[in-house]
Amino acid sequence: MKQMIALLTAMILLLTLPACGAQPARTARDREVFAMDTVMELRVYDSSDAVLDEMDAALAALSRELNAEDDNGGLYALNRAGGGENAALADLVRRAAALSARTGGALDVSLHLASLAWGFPSKRYSIPTEADLTELANHCGMRLVSCAGDRITLQNGAELDLGAIAKGYAADCCRAILERAGVSGILSLGGNIQTVGKKPDGTDWTVAIQDPDDPGSYLLTMTVTGTKSVVTSGDYQRFFERDGARYCHILDPETLSPARNGLRMVTIVADEGFLADGLSTALFVMGLERGIEFWRAGNDFEAIWLTEDGTVTVTEGLEDRISYKNAEVVRR
Ligand code: ADP
Ligand code: MG
Predict the structure, then answer these.
(1) Alpha helix (H) ranges present in the chain?
(2) How remote is the CA of residue 163 from the centroid of ligand 1, in Å?
(3) Per DSSP, what are the bridge partners of residue 34?
(4) What is the CATH number of domain 69-157?
(5) Is the CB of 159 under 6 A from ligand 1?
(6) Topology given in CATH for the domain delimited by 27-63+165-330
(7) For atom 15 of ligand 1, which residue has the closest CA?
(8) Each residue of 23-63: pLDDT tens digit?
(9) What is the Cβ-side half-sphere exposure of residue 287, based on CA atoms within 13 angstroms?
(10) What are the beta bridge partners of residue 180?
(11) How many helices (H) and strands (E) does the chain have?
């Protein structure tokens, strides 16, 4: 009997001890921040606000550093001076140049002057003349951008605009913060979704893709396992209309004019935020057919295209992960 009691006591101790010594429960913690011109929603599963604070600070710093319109930031200074030394920016620009080459120039981070001419940063929109566009072509294009070590050189007054990759890169930085802390979470950085790790209940993450015609609703939902980046570029996020035509903020580097090729939006799913963001912009420029060819040639991303006629096209790797609200679907 004594032995029984001792055993029972030991069992009770064993059952209760871990609970006493365990970490405080990891619950969902949410924070909304405004950075990079957009509202960002951060959700982490943690027992304190520490990683939220860290991400908040990192996003504020990146928002300043990577924004061509922020006169306190590194990119602004670089553009004013026609280049300069900045290790972090040189690294980013080198990566952007490599992705630009891979996408046949569809991604082009040297179009700031063209963006300004169309009035996108200021929201004071205007349509440049043919002569304006011809002149702009002398000051835009990746051939004018070079990096050597930490030094970036911009020729002919070219200016950098990192808007196409900034949020993706920011997602990678946030992901690193979460991974270092061993914390899982889901981040929405204004159209860029980043999942990190596993949901505490072990189920997949669910990501909803906005309906371009009804921003309050969604076009489809997608399950995501583990750490991924899901990035959407479309013609409905920033645009203006003149005489019934829509002019969106994504420019075709060949014409320096808003991309218009029958696409409404493209979503990219990839392991890395930088890649997903860069490709979402590039594939929006490419249009559907060129985009599908590009996808076939690679193996590091999946994609969803929505065309103006309401057709959704998805790549193989996503087929079983998507639930459609009410769209006609073509599978590739
Ligand atoms: P968003 O930033 O709205 O989520 P994107 O990631 O597609 O959308 O980036 C669009 C931004 O990138 C534009 O606002 C502009 O600053 C810049 N940009 C426009 N066209 C291009 C292009 N062809 N290549 C690279 N950057 C571009
Ligand atoms: Mg992008």
Answers:
(1) 2-21, 50-65, 74-81, 87-102, 112-118, 130-136, 166-181, 273-286, 288-297
(2) 5
(3) 39
(4) 1.10.3980.10
(5) no
(6) T-fold (3.10.520)
(7) 163
(8) 567 899 999 999 999 999 999 999 999 999 999 999 999 99
(9) 9
(10) none
(11) 9, 19
